[in-house]
Amino acid sequence: MEAWTAKLKTIKTLEERLAREETLEARRDHHAKRPPRPCGITIHTGVGCPLACAYCYIYDMGFPGAASPYRLTPLQMAYAIAANPHVAVGEWGTLVAVGSVTEPFLPETKELAVGYMKAVAAYLGNPIQVSTKMPPPAELADVQKGLDVLISVTDLSGRLEPKAPSPADRLRAGAELLRRGVNVTLFVRPVVPDVTDRELTRLLAYARELGFRRVVFGTLRVTAGIAARLKAFGVDVRPYVKELHPRRQTAINYPKSRVVATAKELGFEVLPASCASNVVAHGQACALCRWGPCGDLKKLRADPEEIREYLEARGYRGAGVAVEGLRIRLNIKISRVDKIFLEQATRLPVKEGAGRN
Ligand code: SF4
Ligand code: SF4
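The line above is the sequence of Radical SAM domain protein; the predicted structure tokens follow.
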């Protein structure tokens, strides 16, 4: 199976370029262990963030209010991702998302973030997406064909993000990348009741005028601390949540149908999740979760013979493999790691039978 061969080859190539100590450090890192979710694997470019957006969840997760660059070098990060046993490597491999528990383009981490993206693009080739509240750097135009840049905003005023550059500045920098041929998507995240919807048409119309054509709307998730911070900014989320927990995040119950309808009326392609934007930007497809399938489904191919070969290489003998529409059926049970890898490599859900052969 191509993704398996590519993985072994990439690991070997990177081991030839790294010192043994560096490979050991990378293998100990959580990027080399964490199972990707259907929507892909996230790369952390730093620890902490000073921008203090009112709705941000990282502080409840224990991250600090100052940023420091992540400890791995770009080659180590590429190696950690390739060595992660769950991750499929290659152009159609696991989706890679940069910027989930920090802002990647802070002055402290910008160079490293671009370095991570360049190393993953050069050595693995997996589809990369980056989301930002800073004006994205122009050099992103050279990172990867199909790179997806998400410009994250909640409204045009930026009143919940007082320390971040103004949303208009972010959008204009995104438009500059659009002019350079990069895929840039409007990421309205999170949709905050009585904030995002107040001037949504103005925000969307401005983005359209700048050249944005795709949009993703993200749900607000709150803890008790986030709800209290939002309250201090004049936003009351209590009508939209049943319970608030100190650490566990709860998605607010606020229908997005109206914001979606407004975006469609203005001519936007509305995608169901950020990973869908990564898939579409790279001209690919995915059917891994209930929000999809996404992209050009004709391109989703799974060859039962190749899957059997992969399973043999992993020690499963005589497995029955059938590709049934948008899913793979096996007549045996396989390990969680192998199942996730197979799903990542094919972008199709795997259903198992009983009993290992
Ligand atoms: S920029 Fe992102 S990580 Fe930083 S505070 Fe805002 S939401 Fe949190
Ligand atoms: S099917 Fe679509 S929404 Fe679901 S994981 Fe794949 S790209 Fe994301």
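Note on the example: Residues 2-17 form the longest helix (16 residues). Residues 304-352 form one domain.
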